[in-house]
Amino acid sequence: MNKNTDRILLVVLLLLLSIDSYSQMSYFEQIPISSSISIDDWISAHYGVDVNKYETTHLMHRNMQAANNNTTDWQHFTYRLKYNNIPLEFCQINVHKKDGYIVSVNGERFNNINVSTTPGISETTARNAAINYIDADLYSWQTDSLQYFDSIGAPELKSQPVGELVICPTDIEDTLSAPRLAYKFNIVAIAPEINSDVYVDAQTGAVLYSLSNICEYTGTAETRYSGTQPVETIYKNSKYYLHDHTRCNGNTSIYTYSLENHSNTVLYHREITDNDNNWTSAEMSPTGDDVALDAHWAAAKTIDYFYEKFGRKSYNDNNKTLKMYVHWLSYKDRKDGKTGTNNAQWNGFVIKLGDGDGIDYNPYVSIDVVAHEFGHAVTQYSAGLIYKNEPGAINESLSDIWGACVKHYAAPSKKIWWHDYESRMDNKASRFLKNPRNSDTAYYVCPNMYKGISWKDYNIFNDNGGVHWNSGVMNYWFYLLTEGGSGTNDKGDSYDVTGVGFDKSEQIVYKALTDYFTMFTDYSKAALYTREAAIELYGMCSNEARSVVDAWNAVGINIELNIDDILHITQTIESGESRVFCATDSIYADNTIEAGSNVEYKSGRVIHLGPGFRAEPGSNFHAYIEPCTSSPSSSPSSYLAPLSMPQYHDSESEETQTKPNNDIQIYPIPCTDKLNIQNLSENMSAYKIYDVHGKLIKVGILAPETTCISTTDLKDAIYIISISNGKNILYKKFIKE
């Protein structure tokens, strides 16, 4: 909280539902906050719950390495919500600050909570219910091999899971269901492989539901080779090992092992070695270990991509070691007598890659397969999207998107939009991002529009609610955002989207994922959050924000840009920043544009450069009068604006201009019911009052005998008043309490 700020205008994404219901926030509401109240206290008071703030997350220095680095003045915080010191499951508040001001908040919460926080059953009883519900053959705490826990970097799995009391929805499928007190257990099994969070009613002992933490991938691999590529190894015991300790400036490691056609990462994992560090096909292919070379190289390029593009250090953004296992044969496939697994997975801890059956599928070690599974890990450690229904489909789509992005980054000669085509033997892709419904190209015919043709009803469809099918909607959205395209969707609506290219589309998706998405983000909120990410990166009226909105409309998610009618710009645009400011009617600018910055003002009617405006030599500043509305324009015609720019003269004989009286005083500050004006010239006759975002709040006339303005109709906040004599404008700031 910036204690030097007189007021903070908090824009909250808020949608209030019925009493005792689980709500998703999806539109903006302005709420003034006193600077004397911390944001922690305000959230506690406003939501009626306690808060637990995470550490500051995603400070924008990470974006300094990105293609667009104009968000260094943004900060993002995450708050967990509690009731009587019990965590509210799936509830969080993301707070977004700009220049020390709270700009927006998004997240999920319960409206009202009225539950007992005293459990009616013991933790032991609840744990037994959770274990019986999973019904595995072998749990993690039942193995005698200590190597198992080291192999996945999770020593806590040596013991039976500890139950955490949480308040969660009664029914995960019904977000309006009443909240319940529950025990939450993370149950990890080795045979079969399971990693699930199980929620047990703390009063009755009934299992409410379980959520899997394993993100599996079906039908995704490439041939065993991506050409001759460099790989990083280590040398010990007179051999070279597939251990890479060079990623992220030497802070992140990759270990690649063989699972020897098993699923247990402890009992059967084997080091892959070479004698001379020249890993040739002739010596590696007979054992099938050439697939490990593809996987090892793909993992290195994937980590490089996230580090170079976003400054992310491994999948958890804290240099977590990545462990990968080739020759994975799943527990079920081995039990069924199969010799190869047609799958790859991120199991919450490591990446496992199957060899394929050799009949329909090649080994699952292509660069987009590895990037896809790594993407699941990134999602787990950022938004944590649950792997079910629409959040699960978005989870899958994000991984498909990263697969395309990493290919574009490291192997652009491959088929960028053909996802996992190299693992299949039928010359098809598993999913085709460019045209998800194209059955000639894609094995899985997916929808390219929300709830359109080929959409899977997650209430009756398996696959965790159709996550691998319904991901096609966001896949196509990303393709349109990146490459552009036109057509008519399943609703009969025509669309025409201008592509922004990979460098910008991937920045938008990453910022939305890490700074805005939550565990329960569905398609409607994904549209809203990607729009906000584009606005933060490129500006409200930028082409990038317009394309984000147009692409969502193309796939059946109807959103618009919310652009102010009148905008008053006072902040300094620093060197290196690229900003676009937009208003449908008027822009009033009293700011400095520093050398080395790139700035555009776009307005539908007038752009007024006031006495405080200055564009320094070396700045790139343009102003345009053009249609700039919340809906797309079919043929916008832009031209350089005739700027309104007052010229002041010191000569007393100059009669063509009347210089405003800079001795004008306004008081009291802060005011309550009225604002007094002192030293007002008789020529000063009109006033306008704006909020800090430039929205026009009030207008009026100041007659010579009228030197005060009623403020009883204004909310408590910071305002800007402009006083005009018809030729010149004077701006003053005041506070209403």
Your description of this structure?
This protein folds into 6 domains: 7-110, Nuclear Transport Factor 2, Chain: A; 123-212, Nuclear Transport Factor 2, Chain: A; 214-381, Elastase, domain 1; 385-558, Neutral Protease, domain 2 (Orthogonal Bundle); 566-640, no CATH class; 665-736, Sandwich (Immunoglobulin-like), CATH 2.60.40.3080. Helices cover 22% and strands 30% of the residues. It has 14 helices and 42 strands. The strands form 12 sheets. Strands 13, 16, 17, 18, 20, 21 and 22 form a 7-stranded mixed beta sheet that branches. Strands 2-7-6-5-4 form a 5-stranded antiparallel beta sheet, covered by helices on one side. Strands 8, 9, 10, 11 and 12 form a 5-stranded antiparallel beta sheet that branches. Strand 38 (686-691) and strand 39 (696-701) form a beta hairpin. It starts with 6 loop residues before the first strand and ends with a strand.
CATH architecture of the largest domain: Orthogonal Bundle
Radius of gyration: 29 Å
Number of helices: 14
The biggest beta sheet is recorded as: 7 strands, mixed
